[in-house]
Design a protein that fits this description.
Strand order of the largest sheet: 4-3-5-12-6
CATH topology of the largest domain: D-Maltodextrin-Binding Protein, domain 2
Largest sheet: 5 strands, mixed
CATH superfamily of the largest domain: Periplasmic binding protein-like II
Number of helices: 9
Radius of gyration: 31 Å
Number of domains: 3
Strand content: 15-25%
Helix content: 40-55%
Length: 292
Amino acid sequence: MEVFRAVMFAGGVNSAAQMLHVSPPAISKVLAQAGKASGLVLFERVKGRLIPTPEAHQLYVEIDQLWRGVEKVRDISRELAEPEHTKLRLVCSASLAPYMVSRTVARLYEDIPRLQCRVRVYSPDILNQALLDRSTDLGVALLPHDHPNLATVKAYQCGLACVMREEHPLAKRKLVRPADLRGERVISSPETTPFGQTLRRAFGAAAEAMHCDFQATSSTTACWFAQAGVGIAVVDQVSIAGGLLAGLAVRPFQSNEKLTVSILRNRYRPMAVAERAFVDAFDRVWKAMPAR
C-alpha cells in the first residue's frame, strides 16, 4: 500500500523511489507483486510512462484515506513515547506535598517542559476514591492504603521527628525520647486515624504524662502550630524534609515506629509514560532527601 500510494502521489516509479529512499527496480517489483496479489491491472505503460487504470484510481482513494489514519497512529505513538504535551493527575497526602511531591514535579518539568500537571491534596479516604474512580492517575500517600483494586507502585519507609520552637529547652538535645515529653503539651493526632495510632505506640507509657489536649489531622498542620508555639509536635520525617518552616528545631525522635510512603495506582489502569517518569523522579528525590 505504501509503494502504490507513493507511485500514485509522485506520478512515477523514479519519483516514488526517491520519496521512499529505495531503488526504482524495487518499486517496480513491489508493484508487480501487488497487481498479482489483487488480480487487478493497476498500471499500463504508454510511451514509457506508467498510467494508472480506473481501478487504480478507485483503489487509491481508499488507500489514501486508510494511510492518513496510519500516519495519525504513527504520530500519536511518537507523542505518547515522548510525552511533550501529556497530562498527569496526582493526589497526595498533606505532609508529602511541601517537599517530596513539589520537588518531584519540578524534576519532571525538566524532562517534560510542556507537561500539564494537576496536584490535589486529599485525605486518605478521598485519595483512595480518586484512584478507584479513575479521576486521578497516581496517588502519593502516607501510611498504608489497603484496597484490592489499588496497587502499590513503589513504597518507602521513614521514621519520626520531633519539632519545636528553637528556644525550647528540648531543642538542645540531639535526640528526643518519649520520656522527655512528660509534662509537655504535645500536638497529637486523633487516635481514630492510622497516624494517631502510630503516635500512641511511639509514645508508649510516657503518653499518660503528656498534655495531648491539642490535635491536628496532618503533620504539616502540626508543624504550623508548633511554629506558633502551641506545643511540640512529633511528625513523620518527610513532612519536615528540607527545613521548609523557619524558627523550628527538628530533632530525631526515638522510636521503632516506621511510616510507609506509597505511590499508588488503580490496579486495572496501566501506567502511562508520564506516570512512570513521575515514579522515577520521585525515587531520585527520595534518595537525595536529607537523612531521614
